[in-house]
Amino acid sequence: MLKRLTNLTKRLAKGTPEVAATPADTIHRENKWELRRYRPDPDAERLDTSPVLLVPSLINRHYILDLMPGKSFTEYLLAQGHDVYIIDWGTPAAEDRYLSFDDYCDTYLGRAIRLVARRSPTDKTHLLGYCLGGTLTSIYAAADSSQLDTMALLAAPVDFHDDGLLSQWSRTETLDIEAMVDAFGNVPWPLMQFGFHLLRPTMNLSKAVYAIDKAWDDQFLDGFFALETWANDNVSFPGGAFLKYIGQLYRENRLINGEFALSGRSIRLSDINCPVLNVTFEHDHIVPPESAKALNDHVDDELLNHQHLYGGHVGAVVSRKASDHLWPLVSEWFARDSEWFEHAEGLEEVA
Q1: Which of 88, 102, 106, 284 is catalytic?
Q2: For residue 244, what is the domain's CATH number?
Q3: Which is catalytic among the residues 82, 126, 161, 313?
């Protein structure tokens, strides 16, 4: 025990590990958000396919997909020869309280898709949405799939009336979201983080115990502190977008019921007409598998490939196992392009 604690102390003295280290260039900036293109891996053979646009959640920083060298999904995609872009939603300020859900999902995401497609040899892009980013991409794809080659969704909620605690809390009558937005403008990130902590109240204690138990492993500690850096680097939720997100999705479940509108256009998930890889996770306590699996009932069977993997909402994306299962799965999906129909049977369910 003393040896582990000594090693942990020495590791803490080194400071926070480097995160978001993969070199990237900003090719578009608008208000707080940026579209970045990662620099190609000089040692990788470039694939002659559509580029990949990564869409993270609005309420977490984008670099969960580029956590640190060796634990970076972005780094892996580049090594496989993909041309990779990402949206960094930035940090909203007080003046952004009136930004709407449509601003993010239609105006900003739509602009990013068009910019990437313009640089593509196919005039299209592959799209990957993670968590709320997957909800955004699903809605956009239902509105307009014309510039999408394929889409991959990781833990993307579409049916918000599930049995999870987030759904139950969001639908509680005593939660006055209008009063919250009136008071704060943007919903403060500490308030949202507190809610996520309540999902698993003993999580911080269990993580501390596990970190001490693994304190002899420097590689583990680097990954642990990098993930903790990301987990505590949150952003507030613009009030206007929050009202529609909670009010129309969580409370009224309009998306799955076919009653949701984006910039005045009626959205039907059955209108998605690009190939879809829908990935759900067995131990996801933030987006229960049934919430994300619900998309399967609305997408044409010939366009759909559903994969149910072991792992949790975050761990499944950045753990060591991700490089063996999830990352190759998604990379192969994007590399198939129009050939995917011939080989779809090779993607077999893991869980």
Answers
A1: 284
A2: 3.40.50.1820
A3: 313
Which of 62, 131, 161, 298 is labelled catalytic?
131
Does 148 map to a domain? yes
Question: So what's the pLDDT on residue 7?
Answer: 59
Q: Which residues of the chain have pLDDT under 50?
A: 210, 338-351
Residue 88 falls in the annotated catalytic set: no
Does 274 participate in catalysis according to the annotation?
Answer: no
Number of domains into which the chain is organized: 1
Q: Is residue 310 part of a domain?
A: yes
What is the pTM (predicted TM-score) of this model? 0.90
Residue 351 lies in a domain: no
SS3 of the chain: CHHHHHHHHHHHHCCCCCCCCCCEEEEEEECCEEEEEECCCCCCCCCCCCCEEEECCCCECHHHHHCCCCCCHHHHHHHCCCCEEEEECCCCCHHHCCCCHHHHHHHHHHHHHHHHHHCCCCCCEEEEEECHHHHHHHHHHHHCCCCEEEEEEECCCCCCCCCCHHHHHHCCCCCCHHHHHHHHCCECHHHHHHHHHHHCCCHHHHHHHHHHHCCCCHHHHHHHHHHHHHHCCECCECHHHHHHHHHHHHHCCCCCCCCCEECCEECCHHHCCCCEEEEEECCCCCCCHHHHHHHHHCCCCCCEEEEEECCCCCHHHHCHHHHCCHHHHHHHHHHHHHHHHHHHHHCCCCC
The per-residue pLDDT for range 43-56, each reduced to its tens digit, is 999 988 999 999 99
Structural domain including 42 reads 2-346
Span 161-197, pLDDT tens digits = 998 888 888 898 889 999 999 999 999 988 887 676 6
In the annotation, is 159 catalytic? no
